Amino acid sequence: MTEPFELLKAEVDLLGRLLGEAIRRVSGERFFALVEEVRLLAKARRQGDEGAGEALWKRVGTLSTEEAEALVRAFTHYFHLVNLAEERHRVRVNRVRAQAETPENPRPEGFLALAQALKARGLSLEEAEAHLNRLELLLTFTAHPTETRRRTLRHHLEALQGELEEGDRTRLYARVALLYATEEVRKARPSVEDEIKGGFTTCPPPSGGPSPRWWRGWRPPWSGSTARGPASKALSASGAGSAGTGMGTPS
Amino acid sequence: VTPEVTRFAARYAREVAKEKVLEELGALVRDLSLSEAKVPVPREVRAGGEGVERFPGEPYRRFFAQIYRKVSQDEATTEELLSALKVAEGGLRAVGLEEVGKSFLRPLEARLSAFGLELAPWTFGRSRGSSSWPPPSSFAWAGSTQTS
After folding, report:
1. What are the Cα distances from residue A48, in Å, to A34, A75, B64?
2. Dihedrals φ, ψ of B68, to 5°?
3. Which of B34, B35, B102 lies at the smallest CB-CB distance from A170?
4. Beta carbons within 8 Å of A197's beta carbon, 6+ residues apart
5. What is the predicted ipTM?
6. Which tens digit of pLDDT belongs to each residue from A133-173?
7. The overall pTM is greater than 0.90
8. Closest residue to B35, CB basis, from A173, A177, A183
9. Contact call for residues B18 and B117 (beta carbons, < 8 A)
């Protein structure tokens, strides 16, 4: 498990440096120095330095509204990038765990563990499948105010994923600079159509029935059974609390 | 190869080239979301995007949206396109973002310089304008000059 953590640290470090360079070039040395000062004070405070906490409080108190907003936005971009690195880390960790899974040592949250738990309760294959076939999985997307992001920002972050894989540093820097130079909040209030498009960016309309990927790992431990997977109604519908309600995007 | 086949091939080549260029221009409209509140923007970029209502405060997007419209309506030549890319690249370089130009604009610039939009000129297929063969730009990509 060490390697994925090392990769996470390396990606956070790389993205942080690229953002720092973008801040320096787009907003100038003075603003970059302010961001660095606040970052280092916050880090020291987090590590238990009370003096740093007081200094941070004082420093932030001297900022104009415009400076404070720019500072908050710069850190928001930083956390977008850290979140991206963490999402990639989760995928890597899950891959490692999936590769390490064996019938004797199933992942606790996987279908193999579920099948074994059902068998341990004394259910036959038919009973287990009948039970699973009654399940309905409903994904609901809600308009959580801390997670609202412009479609443009999401586009840059998604593109950054691929660019991190490719590892072209010039292109990576260019993308981070574009992300930083993009307004976090769009100028025009989004129309209902914009919000619907935004919803479909997150969750494209399904093209058929439930994806077989949901059943990957369904290797029933009952003797003589096949790995076909239940004909479930799972993911038969999804709900959205954002599209078309005027709630999902910051205006 | 009949004249009809040649005409079809010329028109088809141009349509494919146009489609590819439009795809790349669409990507630039998506990517170049720089805000005018964060980066200074050259006058030419701002003026080039006039008339586009979408993307308020994002002049590079407006600029390329306008170029997209012109190319889709056959109102732009390769030279105009190349010149527009240079203008945008200059604007990005001026604010220290030359990497954005290098990564996002130069690939299209290189393809346009090599193949252009006039590889098979529209006018040739319509039997108006020059009747010489080959059309002057057909061999431009290969570095040769007009042969007849």
Report:
1. 21, 21, 50
2. -55, -45
3. B102
4. A151
5. 0.78
6. 888 877 776 766 666 778 899 999 999 999 999 999 999 99
7. no
8. A183
9. yes
